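Continuing the batch. This is chain 6 of the set; chains 1 through 5 are on the previous pages. Same settings as before, nothing changed between runs. Recording input and output for traceability.
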Amino acid sequence: MSNNTSSIVSKVWSFCNPLRDVGVGYGDYLEQLTYLLFLKMADEYSNPPHNRKLNIPKTYNWESLTNKKGAELELHYATLLRELSTAKGILGQIFTKSQNKIQDPAMLAKVIDMIDSEQWLVMGDNVKGVIYEGLLEKNAEDVKSGAGQYFTPRPLIRAMVECIQPQPMKTIADPSCGTGGFFLAAYDYLVTHNKLDKEQNKFIKLQTFFGNEIVASARRLALMNMFLHNIGDIDSDNFISPADALIAASPITYDYVLANPPFGKKSSQTFTNDEGEQEKDDLTYNRQDFWATTSNKQLNFVQHIRTMLKTTGMAAVVVPDNVLFEGGAGETVRKKLLETTDLHTILRLPTGIFYAQGVKANVIFFDNKPASKNPWTKEIWVYDYRTNIHHTLKKNPLKLDDLRDFITCYNPTNRHKRKETFNAETNPEGRWRKFTYDEIIARDKTSLDITWLKDKSLADLDNLPDPDVLANDIIENLEAGLESFREIMATLNTK
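Output for chain 6:
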């Protein structure tokens, strides 16, 4: 982040503490910024040299906000939000269900003046995007807001994109896109690794990205984030659907799917029984194109993502450990995935990299294939970046350089010429190891939860990590254990 960009992020974020003092949280502030930034940029587009005709009524444009103060400003802003929420296209989507959360007119005026003092269009797409991403990350750091669940670590996203290497004139989807992190990383890769012609630029802008996001606030942030990167158009159709992706099969298939589907508890709905008592019922998706019917949201997303791919499509998906070892539906899904796709790579992730504590996750990479009598997966390569790896969000956050060795081992340019770093005799500590299809099938429940490295902290008391890292590991393990118990109890209570 450049000094200028960093200073603008600091400037925009400097209002946070005073706003929190009057009851406006991080998420609410970011949401108000989304509305105001959009209006300011739309205003800049409507003026020279752009002179674009935009569908924003003059009564409710940016200028209408800058010449009002006090109670008049507060009332006008609330009316503006309500009226623009009924507009068509991206305009209406960004302002859907919008409300004024800055009730102090003086603070609202200060935020408007701060945004008005910058020329946002001349910054360049990347600068605007970085500023907004910086704000999203700051918001995700606020544990109480719960925003971290929509925020995948950017170094991990970039590593996944570098492995997939998306190409121009191809489609990219994310069925749970959150604030649009995967789209933006793919966009950055496409524009920095290719000399794009006019047709390719237009395709990226309007025809490359497709997503779903059921949480209105996250979807709003995604749309704005994309708009700031010059993806989509103010008058274009919405490319991020508010519908639940799991409800039905995707009407079209895609070249790439990059995703971090939501973790956590199984979805359920509450209803009143004949006795007038409240009961919960796990939500299941009765999809004919699914291999297994289950209330496990992560397994459903894996199945759905496979159906979203073209026969030549590629996927990189973040999944929790249970997807790799759970029996029943989990085993069915894994076996079918091995048979119908080439599930060629698993990256085991360390704890301490997500804002939600206790998360043990992996990235699975698979290529879709046409129907065949024989399993498509011949071998699975596993990179263990978990054992003896210690990250914390503040003191030792995950960086792209930390995953550089994995990307090298993955060998994106020709993954069929990979070389193991593990050797039972010469390098038993090697993190990159190959397993054959037969070895995997022979494992209990076809488990893909594979580890071979020894935990040094268990074997050598002199080799313990720093106390804060050790404490964090203990918290992570306790959180993971508690979550497992909660799922067991939830299952027992529904029987």
